[in-house]
Amino acid sequence: LEDCRGMYAAEVAYVDGQVGRLLDAWQKARGTGGVVVFTSDHGENFGEDGVWYEHGPSVHDAGMRVPLIVAGAGPGARQDRGVARLEDVMPTLLALARVPRERWPKLDGVDLGARLRAGTARDDAAPAAAFAESGSDLLPESYGRLRSGARGREHCINDERFSWCEGGARPDALYDHLADPQRQHDVAPRHPDVVERLRAVGRRWPVDETRQRSIRTPRFKLVAVPQAEGYATRLYDLRSDPGETRDVSAGNAATVVAMRKALDAWAAGIAGSPVVAHTPEQLEALQALGYIE
Question: pLDDT tens across 123-134, in order?
């Protein structure tokens, strides 16, 4: 683990140096003025929420909380610990570039410019919360998830001991993943009741649509995790527990109710994943990035 952390830190240091070269060249070419925004699309998990050396199937802050550094648009160096989202970057840049509002496309984000200029965040420039939905877990052997694997490949529905797996090169089968983590021996004939139960759960939770959801404020984060009968929620106090290790729902019932209501309202507007026909060039690019086989 420490070797991997060291390599990751080395990669960050290397990229930092290259970004410095880019900014030096840009400043020489453009002079002073302008705005630089540094951010990222995701972080990386090093064991948080059971995810190792990757990102996607979890809404833990290890993968969700990213830098948002804006230089050239404020009074000087300072930190703002309010909520900000990636969808806020585009309207903020449009406002900083003085593009008239009537020329803006329809956007989900808000202009954070007032928070860059003022000493304290203005209420109308601070989103009350940030919502997120994870990706699905693409690894069939992720037995800790209710669903694992992807459509078009082997995918499983899991409980604490068994996994019912379909869609791969092998016939559909039931595995005891505790005794047989490599999924070599079909035990379905000995456990027909388990097969029926897991298949019923699979019908309620579609492949590629079984995902964690979260709502985050500056202090609290509510995470909804798929379970056989529905979502189970956990509440974390990020001020005292930034690692998201202790569920504090019991002592914050009103907060759980309010955040769950807001999360359900947001989730109701999420459409299912559309079926997209990709061009050969797009498929080649996705394959090169490792997103498809």
Answer: 556 688 999 999
CA nearest neighbour of 194 among 221, 172, 220, 164: 164
Q: Are 256 and 249 a contacting pair, CB within 8 Å?
A: yes
Record the tokens describing residue 133, joined without a space: 């939905």
Candidates 96, 106, 175; CA nearest to 140 is 175
DSSP label at residue 101: G
Q: How far is CA 2 from CA 8, 119, 230, in A?
A: 10, 39, 37
Give yes or no for residue 122 having a pLDDT over 70: no
Residue carrying the six token digits 């952390």: 5
> For the purposes of burial, counting CB atoms within 10 Å of the CB of 106, is it exposed (0-12), middle (13-18) or buried (19 or more)?
exposed
The vertex-212 CA angle with 204 and 127, nearest 5°, equals 130
Is residue 288 within 8 A of residue 282, CB to CB? The reply is: no
Q: What is the pLDDT of residue 118?
A: 61
Query: What region, left, alpha or beta, does residue 234 occupy, with left being phi > 0 and alpha being psi -120 to 50 degrees?
Result: beta
The SS3 call for residue 109 is: coil
Residue with tokens 């690019």: 285
**What are 276-286's pLDDT values in tens digits?**
778 888 888 88
CA 37 to chain centre: 21
CB neighbours (10 Å) of residue 108? 10
> With contact defined as beta carbons under 8 Å apart, do 152 and 136 qualify?
no
Record the pTM.
0.85
